[in-house]
Amino acid sequence: MKLATLKPKHFLWSVEGAVATLTLNRPDRKNPLTFDSYAEIRDTFRDLIEAEDVDAVVVTGSGGNFSSGGDVHEIIGPLTKMDMKDLLRFTRLTGDLVKSIRGCPQPVIAAVEGICVGAGAIIAMASDLRVGTTESKTAFLFTRVGLAGCDMGACAILPRIIGQGRAAELLFTGRNLGGDEGERWGFYNRLCEPDTALHEAQEMAARLAAGPNFAHMMTKTQLDKEWAMSLDAAIESEAQAQAICMQTRDFERAYQAFVKKEKPKFEGD
After folding, report:
1. Structural contact between residues 133 and 193, judged by C-beta atoms closer than 8 angstroms
2. Is the pLDDT of residue 165 over 90?
3. 130: enclosing H helix or E strand
4. Most exposed of 45, 70, 80, 206 (fewest Cβ within 10 Å)?
5. Neighbouring residues of 153: CB distance < 8 A, sequence distance ≥ 6
């Protein structure tokens, strides 16, 4: 499947080299999500499993902000009028978005400028890597609208990134996590100047895309699988994963390049 020609309705999509960039694009409202955009983003990440032309993904927002989360008028209002059956259908949809990001084989990098709150913060959290700026403001603000902080996998994923106590603080209070604090806590892998996060994330994605993509897929898979494993099971699972990688042509290419004192050229097979 080729995704370079994808023409989504609810966000911008571009592919340069082997790096895809997904841009939330409602800048006048700080890029909120709607029922339709949730579903289309989820389906796009599911399609990435079969993509032949994308080896890394960057997620960002337009207009100097990442995302203001669920649209107040198009999502929050209607939710107050739904019955339990429809509410559960919606919350499962949002959870499926996170599962699709975690389930695609490509590394996913969030380029976070400005406001990144609610479901936007969840998308950044669900990404493999995060690039922020000194002006990034991230908030898991669910409790501020009367909801639990346990939304879209936050109670499972966020503590693994920043630690249990820090995650509890953010999920209980809904307060803003600034860029400097976010880097210090480990939420951001890298901090850069405002208006440069996308460039930094795309450069990082290009470096990953030029690497051993089959091995990256195995790494991402193991990072997820080992959450629920004992140490013995994790070591055995990694032994099997590494033995599989040792059968790839990329492993042989790396060896030959080392012998010749050259930089290896990985092809993902």
Report:
1. yes
2. yes
3. strand 129-133
4. 80
5. 95, 98, 99, 122, 125, 126
**Residue-wise over 69-78: b if at least 16 C-beta within 10 A, else e?**
bbbeeebeee
CA distance 144 to 203: 36
**What amino acid occupies position 250?**
D
- C-alpha angle 40-125-95 in degrees, rounded to nearest 5: 45
Residue 123: pLDDT over 90: yes
Spell out the domain ranges in the chain.
12-209, 213-259
- pLDDT category at 214 given cuts 50, 70, 90 is very high
Three-state DSSP class for residue 110:
strand
Q: Tell me how far apart the alpha carbons of residues 25 and 67 are, in angstroms, rounded to a whole number.
A: 9
Task: Please list the residues that pair with 33 across neighbouring strands.
Answer: 70
Has this prediction a pTM greater than 0.85? yes
Residue 25, SS3? coil
Confidence of residue 267 (pLDDT cuts 50, 70, 90): confident
- Tell me the C-alpha distance between 45 and 41, whole Å: 6
HSE-CB at 172 with a 13 A cutoff on CA atoms is 7
Q: Calculate what percentage of the chain has a pLDDT beyond 70.
A: 100
pLDDT score for 109: 98
| C-alpha–C-alpha distance, residues 175 and 165, integer Å | 14
Q: How far apart are alpha carbons 207 and 31 in whole angstroms?
A: 28
- The DSSP call for residue 107 is -
- CATH fold, domain 12-209, is 2-enoyl-CoA Hydratase; Chain A, domain 1 (3.90.226)
Q: State the DSSP H helix or E strand holding residue 38, giving kind and residue range, or none if neither.
A: helix 35-47
C-alpha span between 254 and 17 (Å, rounded) = 22
